[in-house]
């Protein structure tokens, strides 16, 4: 169809926004034949900087960019959007307690959930990148009662891509030879990147690696702490890779995952794999026509069970904290 897809991006003047908008506008989401219209939400003090970014978008003369609207009012910006990428969030500043961080983000994601509920298109899909992503998605979902719960997801695709990259480097395989990677749980240091169901060139990845020590002491912590390593090296948090993963996740959600593979998405649990219903937790999912399904029937051994349980326990704690704060 040549009707532009209306895509909202929040935090559009931020670091991730600076990579994300240009990729979206150049056709990385839906290809060169489908125009998109960008709806960019920022806080008032960042609108001037955002105007500069829009000048640069104009200067790219992207054939697939059908229009750009910017503003600081969610009800205006989210009006009729088909896809909302919620990237903007309140970062943890020095001396900020966990509860303060959850309240600050709670204010953002309750308001944005309500606005989406009011004005988004009937087919809207919402992807949350801003941290704490899983719990922010839970807050937005709970504050948007008229939007089906399965339309909300939080981003663990960056973790998924990091895990593929690490496994490819270890085994000497190409990233395209790695299939069925899974991130379980929270997008945090407790996440569990699972190679036991992954494949390298069609063979079981754990068997190809043949080194439980590497999996436990190298692979898992490297993937889980990659964000911190990037900050240490670059002086700022991952941005281009986060933007790329945000697009990968949205593209696969809308257009479907490959038939011989799955992807990781944090979605509302239906109780699968013992994850309490309603928590936004990362699972292996297949996607098709804008819907996702949790991959069923995977054997979870004791090692994986304890890792999944630990991350899910953290999600339950975050949910309890935002419940106590009255945000959900
Ligand atoms: P920046 O601080 O560069 O940009 C955030 C932008 O959001 C700012 O321009 C700010 O003005 C805006 N903003 C704040 N409140 C807003 C509101 N109520 N409405 C609209 N805009 C608002 O951060 P950046 O590096 O772009 O990261 C954005 C978020 O992504 C952070 O929460 C970060 O922690 C998170 N990340 C999530 C990742 C993931 O894999 N899920 C990985 C990368 C990143 O760390």
UniProtKB/TrEMBL annotation:
Active site residues per record: 187 (proton acceptor)
List of residues binding substrate: 92, 98, 131, 162
Residues annotated as domain Lactate/malate dehydrogenase C-terminal: 156-323
Coiled coil: none
CDD domains: MDH_chloroplast-like (cd01338)
Reactions listed under catalytic activity: (S)-malate + NAD(+) = oxaloacetate + NADH + H(+)
UniProt keyword annotations, A-Z: NAD, Oxidoreductase, Tricarboxylic acid cycle
Enzyme Commission numbers on file: 1.1.1.37
SUPFAM superfamilies in alphabetical order: LDH C-terminal domain-like, NAD(P)-binding Rossmann-fold domains
Pfam families given in the database record: Ldh_1_C, Ldh_1_N
Positions with a binding annotation for NAD(+): 11-17, 105, 112, 129-131
Keyword Translocase: no
Every Lactate/malate dehydrogenase N-terminal domain range: 6-150
Superkingdom, natural source: Bacteria
HAMAP family reported for this sequence: Malate_dehydrog_2
Function statement: Catalyzes the reversible oxidation of malate to oxaloacetate.
Family: Belongs to the LDH/MDH superfamily. MDH type 2 family.
Name of the protein in its database record: Malate dehydrogenase
Originating species: Nocardioides koreensis
């Amino acid at each position: 169809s040549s009707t532009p897809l209306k895509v909202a991006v929040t935090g559009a003047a931020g670091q991730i926004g600076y990579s994300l908008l240009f990729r979206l506008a150049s056709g990385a989401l839906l290809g060169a034949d489908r125009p998109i219209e960008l709806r960019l939400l920022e806080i008032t003090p960042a609108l001037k900087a955002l105007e500069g970014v829009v000048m640069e978008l104009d200067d790219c003369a992207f054939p697939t960019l059908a229009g750009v609207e910017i503003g600081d009012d969610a009800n205006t910006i989210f009006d009729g959007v088909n896809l909302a990428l919620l990237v903007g969030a309140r970062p943890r500043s020095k001396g900020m307690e966990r509860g303060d961080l959850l309240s600050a983000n709670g204010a953002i994601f309750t308001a944005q959930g309500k606005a989406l509920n009011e004005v988004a298109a009937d087919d809207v899909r919402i992807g949350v990148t801003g941290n704490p992503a899983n719990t922010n998605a839970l807050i937005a979902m709970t504050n948007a009662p008229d939007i089906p719960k399965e339309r909300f997801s939080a981003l663990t695709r960056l973790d998924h891509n990091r895990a593929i990259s690490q496994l490819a480097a270890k085994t000497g395989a190409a990233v395209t030879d790695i299939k069925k990677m899974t991130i379980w749980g929270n997008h945090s240091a407790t996440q569990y990147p699972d190679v036991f169901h992954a494949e390298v060139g069609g063979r079981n990845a754990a068997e190809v690696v043949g080194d439980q020590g590497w999996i436990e002491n190298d692979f898992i912590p490297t993937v889980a702490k990659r964000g911190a390593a990037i900050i240490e090296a670059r002086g700022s948090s991952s941005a281009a890779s986060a933007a790329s993963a945000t697009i990968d996740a949205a593209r696969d959600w809308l257009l479907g995952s490959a038939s011989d593979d799955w992807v990781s998405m944090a979605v509302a649990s239906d109780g699968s794999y013992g994850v309490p219903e309603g928590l936004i937790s990362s699972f292996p999912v297949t996607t098709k026509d804008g819907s996702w399904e949790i991959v069923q029937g995977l054997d979870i051994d004791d090692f994986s069970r304890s890792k999944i349980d630990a991350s899910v326990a953290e999600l339950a704690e975050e949910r309890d904290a935002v419940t106590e704060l009255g945000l959900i």
